[in-house]
Design goal:
Layout (H helix, E strand, L loop, with lengths): L1 E2 L11 H7 L1 H7 L9 H5 L5 E2 L7 E6 L5 E14 L2 E13 L7 E4 L3 E9 L2 E12 L4 E11 L10 E10 L1 H7 L5 E7 L1
Antiparallel strand pairs: 1-11, 2-4, 3-4, 3-9, 4-5, 6-8, 7-8, 7-10, 8-9, 10-11
Length: 190
């Protein structure tokens, strides 16, 4: 998956998009195992909206070594499949980011994982945990809780885990030079 965000507010770090905002794209774009758990869900998404008005808000928090919040975000996301192309939209409902006080993200540690557990008909809950390093050397840890709503699509048949093995952003160029956010992510079902 390659992604280029259209815009981001001043002081925001585009690396947060990978860790908190694009869970729905991770599920849709992950390289599948031969005995894939996510295959039926993805096949059923042809033109469906992935996420809906009943979709609970996802929440992500990134903390320092003392447990102090550096980033906290509540957001709602939608994935639309149009002519075989996945288009994602995230609406930030509430939150803050102080990553710029640490010089922004220099590295998102990979691999990191998201465990997705079926919770009922057409729904699942994802939990991802991750670590990142900032320009000032600060190491931060975080997690994102992501509720999946598959609308009329099939339900996951079993718990599955996604591995994010490439997670790169141009955070430094974005913060220091005003470049547009650019992201590169590669995911596989494990």
């Amino acid at each position: 998956m390659k992604n280029s965000a259209v815009k981001a507010p001043t002081g925001w770090d585009p690396g947060v998009i990978i860790m908190i905002c694009c869970d729905n794209l991770r599920l849709f774009s992950a390289k599948q195992r031969k005995d894939s758990t996510i295959s039926a869900v993805r096949t059923g998404l042809r033109s469906l909206q992935f996420g809906s008005f009943v979709n609970s808000h996802r929440q992500g928090t990134i903390v320092d070594s003392l447990g102090n919040p550096v980033v906290h975000m509540k957001a709602k996301g939608f994935l639309f499949i149009e002519d075989g192309v996945a288009k994602s939209r995230t609406v930030i409902l509430d939150g803050f980011s102080n990553l710029d006080k640490h010089g922004g993200i220099t590295k998102i540690t990979t691999p990191y994982y998201e465990k997705i557990t079926p919770t009922g008909p057409n729904t699942a809950a994802g939990l991802s945990t991750y670590q990142l390093v900032c320009a000032d050397g600060t190491v931060l840890t975080g997690h994102t809780n992501y509720p999946y709503v598959f609308n009329d699509g099939p339900t996951l048949s079993a718990e599955t885990t996604l591995e994010v093995h490439i997670a790169e952003s141009n955070s430094q160029a974005f913060l220091n030079n005003g470049e547009s956010p650019k992201l590169k992510v590669s995911i596989r079902e494990v």
